[in-house]
Amino acid sequence: MSCIQATFGRKHGILINPAAYTHTSIALRDAIVAVSLPVVEVHLSNIHGREAFRHNSYIAPIAIGQVCGFGSNSYRLGLRALVDYLGSSDQ
Fold this sequence. Notes:
3 helices, 13% strand, 3 strands, alpha/beta, 91 residues
């Protein structure tokens, strides 16, 4: 959580793969909310095609978007979406 808190006032957005914390960590969600930065959630696998408990994300409701299921391309797609969002006037 400290690396998220360290972004406050220093970064423009967060690209995060919260892994299993996606489904379990309210503390991670709270840390992201506290810094008030746009966040994109990414996952290598399609979490919605896996076990039912993985379908719930504590991060998705506070994120500007979620990218999943594209392997390492999920990071590229998520970063592109975040950069485009930050460059848009619709923030």
